[in-house]
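Q: Sequence in, structure out?
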Amino acid sequence: MGNPTDDSYKDLMDIIHKILGNQLPGKDGVPPIVGVKFVVGGQQNSAPPSRMIPVEVFESDTSFTIQTELPGECPNDFTLSYVDGKLKLQAGENREYRAELPLAGIDPSAIKTRLKNGVLEIFCGKLAAVEAPEA
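A: Exactly. Output:
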């Protein structure tokens, strides 16, 4: 089994958490899993669970506003990325808290955040619609 810092190991742990989370739904969509431990070839490996961060999404004609309360143990420790039409939020020391939102058509260069008292607001402007020329 790989080192817990290997990407393949983390991918495997994410898959296992998704499977277990789908089988054991918890409160507010967060699976009631505290951790996972495996013994392979006499070695113990464990990884922190991946926990979904609940978010609220508000849409207007020109933008999206996402609001969430970051977990108490990581009130200002987060990263944002926008890949393949999905906005990804990760928080916590090991990035174990996550949210992934399909938001196609936003301008990634114009994403702004505001963090106050553990409440994170993410502002995403929509790309202007390109009009087809008339014939």
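Residues 7-47 form one domain.
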